[in-house]
Each structure stands twice: as C-alpha cells, then as structure tokens.
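Narrative summary of target 7.
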Amino acid sequence: MNTNGFDFDQNTRDVLEALCKRGSLPHAIIIESADAQKAAQAAKWLSMYAVCTADDKPCGECAGCHKAQSKTHPDINYPKTTNKSNTYDIDAMRSLIADAYIIPNEANAKVYIFEQADARFTDITQNAFLKLLEEPPRNVYFILICQSALSLLITIRSRCTVLRLKGSIQPEEAALTPAREIVNGILSPREYELMLALRVLSDKKQAEAVLAAVKLLLRDATALLCGAEPIADRELASKLAARFTKQKLIEMAQLCDSAAGTIKQNVNINLLTTWLCGEFRRISWQR
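Modeled conformation, tokenized:
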C-alpha cells in the first residue's frame, strides 16, 4: 500500500490497508472522524486509488493520481450545495444520480466525495440517494465524510462500509469557555445575554477558534440526537438537544461557518455580532 505524500497515523494506515486487502474498493464508504482534515485526506487517497492506472495503487506518479491529488480530475466529483441552508437539495441530487450513469471521462471509475455529509444530507435527499446506493453503476464509488455515521439514515449506513478514524477536535479551554457562554446565550430567553457573550468575537485572533468551539458544541447536540456520544460537553449538548431539532442545530453550526468567513473579510464586528445574534434568535424561534 503506497501512502507517499500522506501523513497518516498508524490507525489510518491500518484502516486503509484492511480495506485494500479486499482487492477492490466497496462502492460506498463512510469515513467517520472527529478530525475533518484527516478524513478528507483519507478520502483523497481513496479517490487516487480508484483512478490510478498502476499496479501498486495509488502510485502517486500517474496522471490520474496527480489530478486526484490536486482535485482537478474530471471523474472525481466533490458535490457542492447551492441553497441557503447549505444542504443538498433534491434537484441537485437528481442531477448527480443522472451523472453517475454517464461513463467516465478519463479513468475507468468515477468517484463522488461528499464532505460534511452528516450536515449536508437531509432525510429527503438521503432517500433519493438510496436508490443509487442499492443499484450502483459499475465502477462508481461514493465516499461520505462525517463526524458521526449515526447522523445518517440507517438505510444509508447499511449499504456502506464504515471506516472509523481516530482523531480529536477538542478545542482549547480558552476557546471552549467563551463558546459555552455563547451557547448558553442561545439557550437564554434574554437576548442581552447572547449579545454580551458574542462580544468575545471582537478579538479577531480568538474569534475563529471560539466559533469553531461553538460549532463543536452544536454538533455535540446533533450527535446526541442521533444516538452518538458528545465530544466536548455532554451536559450542554443535552440542553441543546432538548430545546432544538437536528435541523435547527445544523443551521446554527452553518451560521458559525458563515460568521468565521465574514470575520476574515475585515467586517465591522459590532455589525457582525448584531447580525449573528439576530440569526441565532431567528433560528431558535422559527417553526
């Protein structure tokens, strides 16, 4: 097994090696890891394996491997979201299903890598996707990256090979403490408490880490609703899970991503925190 160019730990190597001993890749793979970067690297390695033309796959030298490594291979697709909720809509899923039956452009295989699958797949799109998993075209591979496989429907999980990679995204306490205050502000009926907690984002050097920690706490609650174990704070996850639906928690987590991207654009922090507070409240109270 060739892993040149990939900084895999022993656990990841063992998981991938066990998979490759089968002689061919399963048509559908779920990569479950708390470390999104590690999971993305494993998915890229598997995509190289699928399109590589050498005997020792992935060789890392052929044109297919180079294009897979740079994400420019025409037969390796990273489906994107196009709606405001940052989820796969049904029309996009139908287009993807139709595309899966079209023969590859260069390689002998096609690969679809779904990043943040646990957040981007709705139940409706999963049910539409299910038919494709049940009767997949020849040499077409689907890789779903998620923090918790339990966030996906059991009908999807039962048709996939699940790879579990070790990894921790436990944030520093310096970020987790203000993140807890923000989450408690979201839970509070008093808007002032949330506004006060969001003031921590005025420190742009710390803001990204704090928003990442808020996102983790929200995902903890999502995991709890799906039967998985929280990573950072079980007590707070329980409060969130009791108050909000899975969809609302996902929307709030996506809101953290939007805010983190906006901060990098030198936005006025007072305007951002006011907007962020309003959006958290809107999601909290919407039916």
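The radius of gyration is 20 Å.
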